[in-house]
Amino acid sequence: MSTATLSSLFLFFFFAIVTPHFVFSSPVPDPELVVQEVHRSINASRRNLAFLSCGTGNPIDDCWRCDPNWERNRQRLADCAIGFGKDAIGGRNGRIYVVTDSGDDDAVNPKPGTLRYAVIQDEPLWIVFQRDMVIQLKQELVMNSFKTLDGRGASVHISGGPCITIHYATNIIIHGLHIHDCKQGGNGNIRDSPHHSGWWTQSDGDGISIFTSKHIWVDHCSLSNCHDGLIDAIHGSTAITISNNYFTHHDKVMLLGHSDSYTQDKNMQVTIAFNHFGEGLVQRMPRCRHGYFHVVNNDYTHWEMYAIGGSASPTINSQGNRFLAPNDRSKKEVTKHEDAPESEWRHWNWRSEGDLMMNGAFFRQSGAGASSSYARAASLSARPSSLVDSMTRTAGALGCRRGSRC
């Protein structure tokens, strides 16, 4: 192991040990210049998506992106999941299904070749797209279990209508899609399997809605500007990893847990890793209830209210993230303890370890931090926050093209 690596590990563990109750950033001479420089660096990185496409220290990407034959080995992706959703295999054991038709004319009797026809099948399917397409759904896309949506090799947008619903399903992988401008749907019949269709009431208008489902992995998607949440997981959903996504231009980004009174979410476990929370975001990155949440090695470059919040005593384990606070002096706090007085939330287990705090950012820690509780909110080894830039610079849907390295 190199001297530089040892030094980085030493600093990481040193700061993890001596972390105070409040975790603040170091003073900076000119906060505005720091913010501008970070944004310049991020934008420059995004203009060079092919640079460092593998070997970045991002364990998911390094598992498959170095393979020039990724297109012939698509299902290898299912072996690369980490975190609480690591056992999500999607359609790995099924055939590859090619979406050839971007239409969605009939939510009850979808045509073969459409995305809706593919996702309702009972058999495992690895679903890919023949060409670039924009899919405007007429109703929610209700997915059956053991499905992968793999957008690599095409630019696939799901937008302008209702979007994706994972309802009482298991083993779902969603990778490489642009999901944006999602609307409310429902108040109509929707087919969810070859043998069943039923009446659905009005939906919330989420980008991806996860309801009473498990073994879910959402990776390398770009999400923005939906009616409600970008990704919501509620009603006893668990074993979820949300990784390598690029979130922009949205208010309530991510809700994990249905309500303070819905105690079935106490066993929820979600990993939030290697995501970029970018421009135009306001709050809920994520907003947690009851369960166990590992927020690790993400890049937070914008929030208008707060970044990480929660209620109903969730355990939040924040490790190795980079938090760049806004210039507004009243919005420097990363965290928000919601719907409870301090006499109550001070017992909630929220901690920050090895996080990089910039431009006055600070994380309000709480709770005694029982090791058994944090063990249930730990799902992978955090890398040093100094590596966040290289690990997240290609977050979002990738520009993979057939015949070249992704």
Write up what this structure looks like.
Helix content is 14%, strand content 32%. It is of the alpha/beta class. The protein has helices at residues 3-18, 31-46, 59-64, 115-119, 342-345, 371-375, 388-392, and strands at residues 22-24, 95-99, 125-129, 133-135, 141-143, 147-150, 156-159, 164-167, 170-175, 178-180, 188-193, 196-200, 208-211, 214-219, 222-224, 231-234, 238-243, 246-248, 250-252, 254-256, 269-273, 276-277, 281-283, 287-289, 292-296, 299-300, 308-311, 315-319, 322-324, 335-337, 350-353, 356-358, 362-364. Strands 2-3-6-9-14-17-21-25-28-31 form a 10-stranded parallel sheet. It has 7 helices and 33 strands. The chain has a single domain (56-392), classed as Pectate Lyase C-like (3 Solenoid), CATH 2.160.20.10. It is globular, with a radius of gyration of 21 Å. 52% of the residues are buried.
List the SSEs and their pairings.
Elements: H1 3-18, E1 22-24, H2 31-46, H3 59-64, E2 95-99, H4 115-119, E3 125-129, E4 133-135, E5 141-143, E6 147-150, E7 156-159, E8 164-167, E9 170-175, E10 178-180, E11 188-193, E12 196-200, E13 208-211, E14 214-219, E15 222-224, E16 231-234, E17 238-243, E18 246-248, E19 250-252, E20 254-256, E21 269-273, E22 276-277, E23 281-283, E24 287-289, E25 292-296, E26 299-300, E27 308-311, E28 315-319, E29 322-324, E30 335-337, H5 342-345, E31 350-353, E32 356-358, E33 362-364, H6 371-375, H7 388-392
Parallel strand pairs: 2-3, 3-6, 4-7, 5-8, 6-9, 7-10, 8-13, 9-14, 10-15, 13-16, 14-17, 15-18, 16-20, 17-21, 18-22, 19-23, 20-24, 21-25, 22-26, 24-27, 25-28, 26-29, 27-30, 28-31, 29-32
Antiparallel strand pairs: 1-33, 11-12
